[in-house]
Specification:
This protein is mostly helical. It folds into 2 domains: about 90 residues, no CATH class; about 30 residues, no CATH class. It is built from 4 helices and no strands. Helix 1 packs across helix 2 and helix 2 runs antiparallel to helix 3. The protein is flat and about 45 Å long.
Length: about 130
């Protein structure tokens, strides 16, 4: 799977790591449809944007108004990257396999796991 033209170093690195992951799982039988490849390409562009923001922030006064705006944009870009990879492409999140996934979003699965971790012992004691 060839990376799109015009990606920077971080975008190419993300593309290669996803391509390697795809080839390692299910005997390389996992492939991306054309629309999924475009979503991955956009995720790679976001990774390049994040790298550019980090370069701009390198050595900057993080209390400066411009830096604060860049930090906020970096946070938004990281959220966009996570959304593209986990929500749009449905890549695994490392959640335990016993967490039910049918009909739930990655966010709700994380919330369920957190709730079980926090309240599980108290529920057992109440029973």
């Amino acid at each position: 799977m060839r990376a799109p033209v015009g990606l920077g170093a971080d975008g190419r690195r993300l593309w290669r790591s996803v391509a390697a992951w795809l080839s390692e799982h299910e005997g390389g039988a996992i492939t991306l449809d054309p629309h999924e490849r475009e979503i991955l390409a956009e995720a790679c562009r976001v990774a390049d944007r994040i790298a550019g923001i980090r370069d701009a922030l390198d050595g900057a006064d993080l209390t400066d108004a411009g830096s604060i705006r860049l930090l906020a944009e970096e946070r938004q870009q990281r959220a966009a990257l996570a959304s593209l990879l986990v929500s749009k492409l449905a890549f695994p999140t490392g959640m335990p396999a016993d967490v039910p996934s049918k009909g739930t979003t990655p966010r709700s699965r994380r919330a369920q796991t957190a709730a079980r971790a926090r309240w599980g012992d108290q529920r057992d004691e109440a029973s």
